[in-house]
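Sharing a chain and its predicted structure for anyone who wants a worked example. Both blocks are below, sequence first, tokens second.
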Amino acid sequence: MSTLKTEVAQARQAAYPIDEVNLNRWSPRSFLEKEVPETTLKSVLEAARWAPSAFNFQPWRFIVARTREERETFFPFINEFNRSWCEKAPVLVLIVSKKVSDKGDFVSHAFDTGSAWGLFALEATRQGLATHAMLGFDQAKAREILGVPEEYAIQALVALGYQGPKENLPDGMREREVPSPRLPIEEIAFQGSFGRPLK
């Protein structure tokens, strides 16, 4: 029995069999002003905790804003476009990654933290939540306001919560509130060398 959400089934079809959570995960901008239970939030973070990382270094860190007061400390570094919709999200999370280990620069910190974000997003979907990652914010200001040490790279800001109706969005955003398609495998996977089609 299919578990695809209606708006997803209309916009996305997998070319090969996969778990439908991968299709149901997309990035809406409309959020309900409904609190995420602590246990649900911690389940999402628990999934991220188990991401793979080189040498088991686990460079990912999550700065979580759950209360109105905490979220308001994030608002000054978020650009105007993103603030216009993400202020309703009940949780904001700044994802950062540790760039150095006791052996020096840790070259895979961003790659490994991306794995953690992927598991975070999929578990959020399984828990009935929506996520939207953004890069439209002032990283220097975020670092200053939240006290992020220099040995950590700022990766993304994520809105987390329950999806709301697109009618709640400002004018100009409603028509964009649909799951986006993806490139076919033939355009992203090569065999043996770059550009050689996968057979």
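Comments welcome. The domain at 27-165 is CATH 3.40.109.10 (NADH Oxidase).
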